[in-house]
Amino acid sequence: MDSITNLIEADVTPLKISSSSITEWFIDFIQKIYMMVNKNQRIINTREKQLDNNILELFIVSLLKFNLENDLLMRDTKNMIPTILNRKSCFRELFYICSLQYPYLVNDSISTLWHRITSLNDMKLENIDLDKTTSVPLFLSDPVALLLRIMLSLSNPVAKESYQIIVQAIFNLVYIQALFTIVSEMNRTEQESWSQIEKNKSKNNMTKYLSIVSSKLLQANYNSNTDNSKVWSLESINASICERCGNFIKIAALIQHHLYQPITWWTVSLNTCPNWGSRICLHINLNNKRESFFSKPGCVFPFDLLWKNLIQELQVYKDGEPYWFRNDSLSSITNWLNEIFQIDNQHLKFLRHIARGIPLFHSPRFIHLPTCYADLLQPYIGLQCSYCRKSITQPILCLICGIVHSKEDTEKKCCHQHIHSIKEHLISCNEGLNLSINIHSTETLIQRKQRYNYWSSLYLDKYGEEDIHFRRGRILYLNEDRLKLLYSAWISSNLDQLSNTSSIDKFDF
């Protein structure tokens, strides 16, 4: 811990690069990415040689976090094809390029941030001006951004062991942050019950944390205004903490996976490796659960198994509680709580709206499609426009939102309201990217703005052949392989490669 503190507090030593043009290229590379993302700032002010340091710092952290979140989305998505899951990530190279510039963008704010997280020097709140030195209290900060900021600020690459210490320090904050949001959702009566637990007689540190957090929230009169019928137990609180900390654990493990040592079991598809489930159970000593979790084909890696495995990889958890880098953990918790309630009363009322648990977002998905094509076709026979009541001869079903509209080249046969609704849908649904099925032809339509392309049909007969426009009158069934291929291309932004080929075989990304 002391060695990491010394690295953070050390002056940044200029990187020795043989050519100054290479350094300029690195900076120009980051700025061009910024301009590509921010369409409203394509041209940098000619009076300024480079972007503002604060903007660049925020953008670098956001860029790296976006890559991690996108990678995590691929791993958390069911039915992703193995070629996408196992392709090489560019995060390591991107992190290296960003780390060349980032230390020059920050001052001593990172050092102050590290001391606030660790409380190793017992900084007093009266010595910290939250309006100037810090932007937001730690409990309202994004833990992934905190981790990236600290890692990028180190002028030299750190060892894996040092990285795990940094993760451990931030995970302590994330753990109490999750506990804070749970207690804030309790009503006053339940907070009083948890605050009166005899801390000194309890062997479970969780009860100590609950007591101090509940007491502090009671003093600030910060609780749920409604009568919450849910009664919390230690088991339910622990389960909720695991759920709320899950995203940070997975992101931290993903950074370790890219920068240090690949987590091989996380890159292998369950459907392509018959012994995958057995290897995981052996790795985390869960052989007695192997049959119940892995006996069904196509099952998803359960969250509790993933949690235990990643916790073991990061080494931040033991016996149901996190490791602490200092013996006086309650002192750190008190500092973090005092920091958030140092906010003046005028702005404290907004705390209830922002001091909530990080929302959990599910992976984007297609609408449910029936197995038999006749079941898909039947509801849209004789479909009429909701505005002018004219028949829609070529109905198009959006795979993303489920809306049905007429085919593009038949717009003129309908009313202006319907034409306008089609254009609005193409813009609003998935940012102008539209995936749909021509219900009367069974073809799949891929559309991006003014670009159109028909892809293979998702429905085939029992011989695996298409029947476009039902010329042969065959009974068609949903082909899971094609649906999986289309979904994987959509979720991984590979639709261009998919639509540029006329082959109906599995496409290698």
Automatic annotation (TrEMBL):
EC number from the UniProt entry: 2.3.2.27
Domain E3 ubiquitin-protein ligase UBR-like C-terminal: 120-492
GO terms under cellular component: cytoplasm; ubiquitin ligase complex
Record flagged with keyword Repeat: no
The keyword ATP-binding appears for this protein: no
Family: Belongs to the E3 ubiquitin-protein ligase UBR1-like family.
BP term (GO), one: protein ubiquitination
Matches recorded under InterPro entries: E3_ligase_UBR-like_C, UBR1-like
Domain of life: Eukaryota
Catalytic activity as recorded in UniProt: S-ubiquitinyl-[E2 ubiquitin-conjugating enzyme]-L-cysteine + [acceptor protein]-L-lysine = [E2 ubiquitin-conjugating enzyme]-L-cysteine + N(6)-ubiquitinyl-[acceptor protein]-L-lysine
Signal peptide: none
Pathway recorded for this protein: Protein modification; protein ubiquitination
MF term (GO), any: zinc ion binding
One Pfam family here: PRT6_C
PANTHER family tied to this protein: E3 UBIQUITIN-PROTEIN LIGASE UBR3, UBIQUITIN LIGASE E3 ALPHA-RELATED
Name used for this protein in its record: E3 ubiquitin-protein ligase
Organism field: Rotaria socialis
Function recorded in the entry: Ubiquitin ligase protein which is a component of the N-end rule pathway. Recognizes and binds to proteins bearing specific N-terminal residues that are destabilizing according to the N-end rule, leading to their ubiquitination and subsequent degradation.
Keywords linked to the UniProt accession: Metal-binding, Transferase, Ubl conjugation pathway, Zinc, Zinc-finger
